[in-house]
Amino acid sequence: MKIAVIGLGSVGRGVLETLAGKNIGLSVTGIADSKSGYIDPSGIDIKKVLMQKKKTGRCGDAGVTAMDVVREADYDILVEVSPTNATDGEPALSYMKTAIKRKKHVVTSNKGPIALAYKELKALAKKKGVALRHEATVAGAVPVFHTVEQGLAGNDIRAVFGVLNGTCNYILTRMAEEGLTYEQALLEAREMGYAEADPTYDVKGIDAAIKLVILANTIWGNGVTLDDVDRTGIDRLTPEAIRLAEEGDCTIRLIAEADKSSGLLRVSPRIIRKNHPLVVEGSLNAISIETDLAKEITLIGKGAGSIETASAIIGDLLFIAERYGRRP
To answer: Coil, strand, or helix at residue 27?
Structure first.
């Protein structure tokens, strides 16, 4: 099958590097970054494009836009991995709608469009007979949606609890391990590359809340939004709070939780026992899924990273290739 890739940041590069290193029957016929684009129906030399991107900052012709690639390239699957816009989902939302209207499958790591317009996109994809896959939007390499949709098929998913933000988890881990203040742990997280220069999105719980919305809408189809999430971040936590939790053989983690029966959607720092499966270290993510048949399943893994997130995208691509058939 042929794919077009929109976005050549960390995730996009990870996808292309993986495709260049593995023979999995997928060829790239269109690529675009924020400044340029490149279309070749016969297949693109991925290594050459990555080298050009590194040298010039562009993947192709400055006169070719991302929307040109979406509208004109010959592909079966659009891989949309451009930066997230949590306000209106654009321009990625328009890329996805355009591709689906062309009867192209879509695979994405972009949280904005999925959090804001999942029901609309899913309905449009169903109407056009194509797939919309978004494993990489929640918990990086952790196969949450594959587990829910395939591994737990037939189960009633009753609740979901998770540590969904690696930056917050790293900060809380360091505060507990070394007695650091929030400010000290945040500075260290920045130096390690886990936190952005402006960490608001992470430490205020916004990122975790968006992922919770995606989980709830995907699992239960209830059309919730970010405004429906009761949200408290970690930016006011003190070393004293961590110490008090430690005295009771507990610790504090930023927990995202969704409950089907009560409609609860909440992201907040929670005191939990140290032996709880959600107490993971550093930048790891963990998700516990509560069901009627399998009871509780917990998944743990890398929640971010170029190659780790690419793993989720490749999984979705191969799912589509197997389900819908590889085109000669």
So the answer is: strand
DSSP SS3 for 323: helix
Cα-to-chain-centroid distance, residue 71:
25
Question: What is the 8-class DSSP label of residue 77?
Answer: E
The set of catalytic residues is: 211
Distance between CA atoms of residues 192 and 77, nearest Å: 35
Which phi and psi (to 5°) does residue 220 adopt? -115, -10
Across the beta sheet with 77-80, what order do the strands follow? 37-39, 27-32, 2-6, 77-80, 105-108, 132-133
Residue 252 has pLDDT above 60, yes or no: yes
Q: Tell me the domain boundaries of the chain.
A: 2-141+307-324, 146-302
The CATH number of 2-141+307-324 is 3.40.50.720
Cα–Cα dist 326/312, whole Å: 19
Could you tell me if 209 and 256 are in contact, meaning their C-beta atoms sit under 8 angstroms apart?
A: yes
Structure token pair of residue 327 = 């085109």
pLDDT tens digits, one per residue of 138-150: 999 999 999 999 9
**β-bridge mates for residue 252, sequence order:** 271
